[in-house]
Amino acid sequence: MKLRLFNTMTGRKEEFKPLQPGKVGMYVCGVTVYDYCHIGHARANIVFDVIYRYLQYLGYDVNYVRNYTDVDDKIIRRANERGIDSRELAEEFIAAFDADMAALGLALPTHQPKATEHMAQIIAIVEKLIARGLAYASAGDVYFAVDKFTGYLKLSHRNMDEMRAGARIAPGEQKRNPMDFALWKAAKPGEPSWPSPWGPGRPGWHIECSAMSMEYLGESFDIHGGGKDLVFPHHENEIAQSEGATGKPFVKYWMHNGFVNVNQEKMSKSLGNFFTIRDILQQYDPEVVRFFILSAHYRSPIDFSDQNLEDAQAGLSRFYEALRLAAETLAKHAPPKQAPCPVITDEERATYDLVENVDERFAEAMDDDFNTALALGHMFEVVRGMNRIVAEKRFDECPLSLVVLRDAAGKLLKLGGVLGLFTSDPVQWLERGQAAGLQEAGLSAEAIEELIAERQQARKNRDFARGDQIRDDLAARGIELLDSKEGTTWKVK
After folding, report:
1. Does a structural domain hold residue 60?
2. Is position 454 annotated in a ligand binding site?
């Protein structure tokens, strides 16, 4: 199966054929650096980080560009509120963004340009648009004339007449048409500005991405990504000004990730359900957040809630537990170079086939528009197979099972690397989770062992009600007891 991705422009999945064989140019809109990043930023950046990693896994040479918007109305307003220079504020939150993305395990893009470092490129594009009759200067501002560009709204598929009916010209704007958008804004007192043919000023929001993407990827490139909220007006306007300036198709494939809701409501500061990445990482391991986001298809909406994060932690723990058990088993029973089995059960054969073919099933899922949820499902099947091998303990009768167990662990780590998962030592990761669970439960390991001993004594005395009460009380506090022939162990749920 060849890679197919959903193109927002056409509204359908298309086979991926890059403009240059073996090479991919990808631009993803970064953040406006005036505040700390929230869970929506985490989703967008994790999604495109995995797309970046998977394209590299397929063997493509990927030129990945993610920008910083470091001049904007919001930055200026926040800097004025704090009484500092806007550049100082922008650098503060660029550093915060970089720290958040590093914590979430993102690979560094090829380029991370800043808008303020590309004024010459921005001005050059605006000049081209004016020369082509697609833009006009007005009192120090420059606006793009949407009526002059054939195909405006082709990405968002909106109706122009309806858009015109709802458009208004704000006070201070010198537009000819309410739908026109700013390419360059005349300087106002106390704002940062740069010299231009139209007087001192600064760029509009949309033009900077056209300038930076074309600077590093050329006038036409393969993939442009971002959240669904950017389809209109940002990406729509990027297309108009870029294609208007060059006369060439701007982007071949447009990709947009779905929204994040919080407890089934739209995230909003006014609703009190606004969570920054830093807030979330105080409570959850970064890899849990990543696992949660990848457990849904990138185009689907996801619901951020404590329950869903706890489910993600439990799912990720299953992977780490399987990797830990595999490592312990292989340390005790080294796989032989040749490992025949006199008799292989049907269940064992099914497990061996799962491990042998997981790479193909993983690739099929990812090739179908980067379906990470399905890819993780195939990897979970391998975990179940690994757990069966360890539980059955047929290592002397069937040494082949050790070879399969070793291969399964290796494949999980390899495929997990494509998703940015399983980067920790399994024992240490599980111990951190256990310590956090004990803290939340208000218990110590010693206290749990004392309760287990009390439960065992109660059962010996045939006081099963007391034994069940201890088990149920621990379960209510997030501690699960595991009874076996060897005795009773416990784990944090």
Report:
1. yes
2. no
For 310, the domain range is 304-424
Q: pTM of the predicted model, to two decimals?
A: 0.91
Q: Is residue 341 marked as binding?
A: no
Domain count, the chain: 3
Q: Residue 338: which pLDDT band, with cuts at 50, 70 and 90?
A: low
Same domain, 256 and 108: yes
For 243-273, the pLDDT digits (tens) are 999 999 999 999 999 999 988 887 766 666 7
- The pLDDT assigned to 430 comes to 86
Does 400 lie in the same domain as 346? Answer: yes
Determine if residue 228 is labeled as part of a ligand binding site. no
* Domain-embedded: residue 332: yes
**pLDDT score of 270:** 63
29 carries a ligand binding annotation? yes
Residue 251 near residue 14, CB atoms below 8 Å: no
